[in-house]
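WARN no homologs supplied; continuing
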Amino acid sequence: GMTKEQKEAYDKAIKEREQSMKKNKELNDAFQTGLTAMQNKDFDAAVASLTKASELDPKQLAVWQHLAEALVEVAVKKTGAEFDAGMAKGVEAYAKALELNPSDAGTHNNLALALGKAKKFPEMQAELQKAAELDPPKAGQYYYNMGAMLVNAGQSEPASLAFKKAIELDPNHADSYYQWGLYLVGKASFAADGKVTPVPGTVEALQKYLQLAPTGQFADAAKGLLESMDAKLDTSYKNPNAPAVKKKK
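OK structure emitted
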């Protein structure tokens, strides 16, 4: 048989193992509940479950990554000070994920997008550069994502630089050529007779898009824009497929 000390040590080990298994089960349950809530777009519930998971074990990368995403989703539905506070929480959760794995390009990219939503553009740029350095094959896509977000934020100049950078990093990134071309279309001059004079590079960018993606999502729009730049066209000409190009007044 065992001595009294051995018995106590054995009982203690069993108890610790049970507690650890119980904790693991709670952690797993909280994490799975959080993921399900996210799939159902119930982001408040996701935040609650994933926060619980992060408290049960603060060393789980996936918990922080999903919690950060859920916090940002909750924040973007708010305004003013509530928006700012919510975004700060999301950014903090991304920072926790990066403490656990500093070389995860996807986390840097997602943090960059969160910073962009928070209108923190210089910080966004820095995170995006890290993502691009860590995962060069995806660098074009990362810069394209940033450009698209800047367009939505009404930041067309920084957006154009992101699309240009995407093309430099990934010369086959079709959508970036289209967005760069679209930006250049906005720089064209219009004569009284309706003649459009595009700035250099405009036609090439749109043609390159069509070479790379002849049936792509922007193909009809690109063709329409190219037609509209071809010598004299009636000023009332509107291609139903072309996205509206806002002229600066």
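The radius of gyration is 26 Å.
OK
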